Structures are given as C-alpha cells and as structure tokens.
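User: Sequence in, structure out. Go.
Assistant: Echoing your sequence, followed by the structure tokens.
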Amino acid sequence: MAVNILDAYVSQEPNPQNILDLFSGEWSSAMLSGSGLTTTPGTANLFDDDRIKWAGQVFGGFKDMRALELGPLEGGHSYMLHNMGAASVLAIEANTRAFLKCLCIKEIFGLDRIRFALGDFIPYLRNADCQYDVVLASGVLYHMQNPMEMLDLIAKVTDRIFIWTHYYDAAVIESRRDLSKKFGRLETAAYQEFQYESIEYRYQDALNWQGFCGGSQPTSRWLSKSSITDYLSVLGFKIHIGFDHPTHPNGPAFAICALRDRDML
C-alpha cells in the first residue's frame, strides 16, 4: 500500500497528547494518574515507581546528585530523578524508538536537567573518565550479552548503584512452560576469576512488536541471583535487596541498592 504523506499531519490544535500519540500502541509506561494524558498500551507505572522511591530512601535522596541512567526506556525514571532534585541526569538509550519517546517526555514535562543520549552504554562505560554520584540500571542487566562486564563497568564510575533486574531461578522457571521454553542450558563461567552462573534467554516472538524494549540481539544472558549479589559484594558494595518477586509474570525479579564506602576498602 502506498504511503500518503498527508497522513503524517496533525489537524488538532497543539497539545501534549498529540506528541504521545506519535507512538500509539507502542508505550510500555502509563502516564501519571491525573495528568489527563494517556499512552497505549501503557501498563507499567514507571513515572511514579515505588522502586525509585525506595532507592531514594536508601541513598538519602537524589537531591543535587549527578546521575547516570542506563536504558531510560521512555523517560519515566528520568522524570522521577528530575523531580527528586537530581542536579543532572545523563540517560543513555540504544533503542531508537525508545529514545524518541524519551525526547517526547522531555518536551512535555520540561525536563531541563536531563540529557538523553542515543547509543550503547557499554562502550560509553568502557571509555568513561568521570564519576557519577549514582547509576541507575533498571530493566537492562538481563538484556546484556555479558552482564558481568556491565556490573564491573558500572562499579568503576560510581559508589551507588540501583539495579532492577530479572534473574534465573531454576525451580521457578522450570515449573513454568511459558518461561522455560525461552531458555537454554545453565552454564558456569568465570569473569576475572569470579565464578558465576548464567543462561541464554531467547526473545522469540517479542521481537515482532514495534514497542519491543529488550536488548539489541536476538538473545541475552540472565544471571542467577547469587551471581549478581556476590559479585557486587566482591567489588566492595553493601547490598540492600527489595521488591524480590520470584513469581513475576516475566520471570523472577528483584531490586538492589548497592553502596560502597571507599574509605573502608
């Protein structure tokens, strides 16, 4: 079917909903209750997320902090950091459509202390020569090809880390056919002499959705829960665990706030 360029024009007067409707049917995030704005399907409550509020409590707030956010998705957590007083946020997103949605959110809410950058945060971290007061990595660790490297790289640029991630639990996942069919075989490997467990995860039909918000390859690797927490402990971090949800619909998941006091090392 031929494309009619006139279909790209908007006939209504300017309003924020017009901006959100550019990605109708592709949104993961729900808009704030009472905002008068809607996103479809938009089910995840990422603009008023209790996990970020908890991280703020553990870290003593985000006021005046210089934050790095890895994989902002649609800007919900970026919005929260801005409203919680972060001095600046660099949010790096590799998914081009997610990046454009982040720019929509920045325009609608006037997030002038946030810079959204389009690209892969792994090479950025490999080359980073600066420190951040806090790094947020929500919903990205389990999308990595080498999640252990990601943890190592984050630890080189900050002493405060917030992570929300899925993790592999054999007993839980093997009891669910809808999940177990997406996984390969659990493997043991070493990263800089640290022994850890990981398993291949296959996105399968999820790759057919225009709003897909996973990794950049057809597969990723999930870590076991202990592999994540033990390695962060080896790196000198004190671990706080919250929102542990073994029966999460998409697989076991938990949140971590990790803090390191370099004077104690």
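User: And one key feature?
Assistant: The chain has a mean pLDDT of 94.
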